[in-house]
Amino acid sequence: MGKIRFFKAGDIQERIRHFVEVLEMNHVDLERIVCIRSVGSSSRYTQARCYGLGRIWQKALDLPTYYIIEIISEKYDQLGPEDKDRILIHELMHVPHAFSGGFRHHTPYVNNRTVNGVYEEYLRRMKIRSGK
């Protein structure tokens, strides 16, 4: 098995910025979201992950809250645009309104039903923006 490598993902960072803006996710501090693309993961099913810098790490290192959105290249990059968008929305939905380093869990907050609802709202807002 090869070694996993991590790279800053500017394309994902811009897409996250887009979603935060369009969906008015005002609780998300874009200056403290870091997007990473990993290569070499042995993960079977995971396409992306969200990590928070927990409170104990914040306190110990005297840092503010940060979140990392990791895209697993082998899984994510081969997907179509709609699936990629849903995955990024899914990961953003894990970030709580308090932006505290914690997570919103799959049940009941982040699941197919809630992600689909937010994605539909995104499409609605994009339609309004385009004037169609």
Structural account:
The structure is a single chain. This protein has 132 residues and is α+β, with helices and mostly antiparallel strands. The protein has one domain: Zincin-like, CATH 3.30.2010. 42% of the residues lie in helices and 17% in strands. The protein has five helices and four strands. The protein has helices at residues 10-22, 55-61, 73-76, 81-93, 112-130, and strands at residues 5-8, 33-39, 48-52, 67-72. It has a four-stranded mixed sheet. The longest helix is centred in the C-terminal third of the chain and has 19 residues, at 112-130. The N and C termini lie far apart (50 Å). The relative contact order is 0.18. The mean pLDDT is 94.
Short description:
The protein has 132 residues and is α+β, with helices and mostly antiparallel strands.
Attribute tags:
132 residues; Zincin-like; four-stranded mixed sheet; globular
What is the top-level CATH class? Alpha Beta
Query: Per DSSP, what share of the residues sits in E-state strands of 2 or more residues?
Result: 15-25%
Tell me the distance between the termini: 50 Å
Structural class: alpha+beta
Mean pLDDT: 94
Q: Segments where pLDDT lies below 50 for 5+ residues?
A: none
Number of strands: 4
Question: Whole-number radius of gyration?
Answer: 15 Å
Note the run of SSEs as H and E. Answer: EHEEHEHHH
**Which word captures the global form?**
globular
CATH T-level fold name: Zincin-like
Number of helices: 5
Please state how the strands of the largest beta sheet are arranged side by side: 1-2-4-3
CATH architecture descriptor text: 2-Layer Sandwich
| Helical content band | 40-55%
User: How many structural units, i.e. domains?
Assistant: 1
Largest sheet: 4 strands, mixed
